[in-house]
Every structure is written in C-alpha cells, then in structure tokens.
Amino acid sequence: MPNTTFLDRAGAWFLESGIQEPNGGVARYYLADEQENRAISTEITGYTISTLVYLHSRTHDKRYLNAAGRAAQFLTRSAWDSKLRTFPFEYSFGETTAPALTYFFDCGIIVRGLISLFRVTGGSEFLEIATACGRSMAQDFAAGNSEFHPILRLPEKDPLPRGPQWSRQPGCYQLKAALAWRDLHQETGEKDFLNWYEDLLAASLRTHHSFLPGAEGDLVMDRLHAYCYFLEGILPHIDRPEIAHTLAAGVSRVASFLREIGPRFERSDVYAQLLRLRLLAEGAGGGPVDRLAATSEAEKIAAFQFDHSDRRIRGGSFFGSRGAKLQPHVNPVSTAFGAQALVMWRQYLAGEREFSSTVLI
User: Fold this and answer.
1) Which of 119, 146, 198, 255 is deepest in the core (most CB within 10 A)?
2) CA atoms lying within 13 Å on the CB side of residue 308
3) Pure H helices in 262-350
4) Packed helices 219-233 and 191-207: angle between N→C axes, nearest 10 degrees
5) Cα–Cα distance, 354 to 319 (Å, whole number)
6) For 52-92, how does the pLDDT look when each residue is reduced to its tens digit (9 = 90+)?
7) Is residue 251 a contact partner of residue 263, using CB atoms and an 8 Å limit?
8) Measuring CA to CA, which residue among 238, 330, 231 is closest to residue 274?
9) Where are the domains of the chain?
10) DSSP code, position 262
11) Residues contacting residue 288 through CB under 8 Å, at least 6 positions apart
12) What pLDDT, in 10s, does the model give residues 89-133?
C-alpha cells in the first residue's frame, strides 16, 4: 500500500498525545491555545475505541488494542451507571454543579465502540453492557411515533427541553446512533434491535429532506456534519435503489453547501465524512467518484493534520477553520474520520473499489 504517514501520525497521536487520560477515558478535545484537555467525554471515548480497533486492523499493532481495552474498561467500570443503565454525557473526577445529562446519540456511539472491541477480543463484559445500553436507548429515550428524545436529565431521565440547535432536537442524524441496534442484532440475534433500527430508518427517510439547510449562514456547516451521519446510517441498505438514490443526492447536496460555506467556515470532519461517503457509494454500485472533488477533499483533510513539535498536537487533526484562522481544537473525531478517509482514498487510487460500511468509524 502507498505511504500512510498520516495514519502513523494519527495513531501516534491517539497513543502518545495524552488525549487519553490515565483512567482510560478520552478528552473531548485538546485546546491548543490553552494547552489543556477538555473534560472526558463518554461519546468521544466510544469513538476512540472504534478508531483504535480500526488502526489495529490496518497495522496489527497490539498497542492499539491495549489502548482500546483501557478505554472500554473505563466505560464499563467507571462511566456506566448500572442503576440508571446509561452513560452520562461527560465524566468528572470531582463534584460538578452542571446538570447530569445523557444523550441518545452518544449512547449509540459508545455501544458501537464496545461492540467493535468485542468482535476482536470476545470480552463478554463489553457486549453485556452494550446490550443493556441498547435496550435503555429504546426504552428511556422513546418519544412516540418512531421519535427519540435527544437528551435526558439524570437521574430523573426526563427529556431536556428542546432547543433550536440540531443536537437539541430529534432528527435523521440519530440514525447513525441507531446503527448500534443493528450491530446488537448481529451479535445477539434479538429481533427487537433490528426492528428499532428499521423503524428509525423509515422515519428518517421520511423526514431528512427538511434537515438541510435547517439554519442560516455558517450554522449550516454544523448541520452538514449531522446530515452526513444520516447518510452513514442508511449504508447497510445501500443495495435498495431508493436508498442508493438518497445517498447519491445527499453527497451532491452536502458537497454543494460545503463549496458555498467552506471559504468562511469549514470543518475537517465534514470533508472526511463526505470523502468516505463518495467512496462507499461507488463501491456499492453507485455512480463514479468525482475525482477532482475527491482529490480536493483529501487535500483539505490532510491540511488539518500537523507534524508539530508538541506531541499533544503532532499527528492530530484540528477541528476546522474560519477563513484563514485555524480553530484551536485538536479533535479525536476529526483525527479519526480524517485518517480513515485518507486510507480509503489511497486504497481507491491503488485500485481497490469495494469498501465495507461495517468498518466505518
């Protein structure tokens, strides 16, 4: 395979930067201008597990599995609330005055991370808690009519009042989290999990048209990130003509908005999500990849990763930029999505045309 220095750097950042705290949890991001990690995020820890498992699959370096194991044990042994049967939004060592919350989306990402490690190691603890969390997602967040509250307050598990931000509302983006149910069905055989995914898939296909732009100005960029989650969520059924059409139209729509807004505000994760979706769409029998656009997206992704003297930055990807000003967040999700997108692009250029959506971080 061609040179993958970007992958090695990203992997080293996850292992050596300190973004993973000694207890195994992973910070939401490293804030470069203040030189400190933000609070541990259970969602980002889940994403990191999936990333480390992916890095191990590409390199066979056992350090990645060891780090994934520490992250998973933090989730199952420290963050998991066995009484409430859920994961809190953030994890704090001390007392906090902020209200405790749990997110539907975050729980799905955590479940997928635990299952990805279970599939490699067979650790029953990971599947057991992932299964319990998957059930609580369906029960506790249910809002009726195939809709799920995005956020609950703990310990009451009351829905947090909804707001104008997409993350404070239910929507088609939640379908990526619902992939956790599909994964759980594959591992447990429980039909309820598959039914819950299929119900949310049907609802998302009915409602996704109104998600974009859904906001004004630069706020649309954040919605592009979330809309890509919807497109990722439909991938298991890309063999259906109507879903293949939805994916192709969605890729085109995201690309159009990205070209329009990018000069003012761009997110590295959106470039990575879009490139991955392009490659997956062609690999599943869709139209050919727009090579000029894909090349530009790959260059953009690479430009957000720095070979820096500071190990806390070196190999990580910055979240985004506003005009010519780089945002100071060195972000685990941006790093993970970017590294995977660039690996897939190198594979594509080397002649590989078939990609499995099951390994999508």
Assistant:
1) 255
2) 19
3) 268-283, 291-303, 332-349
4) 140
5) 29
6) 999 999 999 999 999 999 999 999 999 999 999 999 998 86
7) no
8) 231
9) 32-38+211-361, 39-190
10) T
11) 282
12) 988 655 454 569 999 999 999 999 999 999 999 999 999 999 999
182 touches 194 (CB < 8 A): yes
- The reported pLDDT for the residue numbered 97 is 47
Residue with tokens 């039914």: 195
- pTM, two decimals, is 0.96
Element spanning 325, H or E:
strand 325-326
- Cβ 239 vs Cβ 281: under 8 Å: no
Nearest of 87, 13, 23, 89 to residue 55 by alpha carbon: 13
Residue type at position 178 = A
CATH class of 39-190: mainly alpha
- Contact between 241 and 188 under an 8 Å Cβ cutoff? The reply is no
Is 70 exceeded by the pLDDT of residue 201? yes
pLDDT score, position 234: 97
Q: If you search the block for the tokens 């685990």, which residue do you land on?
A: 332
Q: What per-residue string of b and e applies to 279-316 under the rule 16 or more CB within 10 Å gives b?
A: bbbbbbebeebeeebbebbbebbbebbbeeeeebbbbb
Q: How confident is the model at residue 1 (pLDDT cuts 50, 70, 90)?
A: very low
Residue that has been written with the tokens 């404070």 in this structure: 168
Q: Tokens 């727009």 appear where?
A: 290
Instruction: Please state, rounded to an integer, the average pLDDT across all residues of the chain.
Output: 94
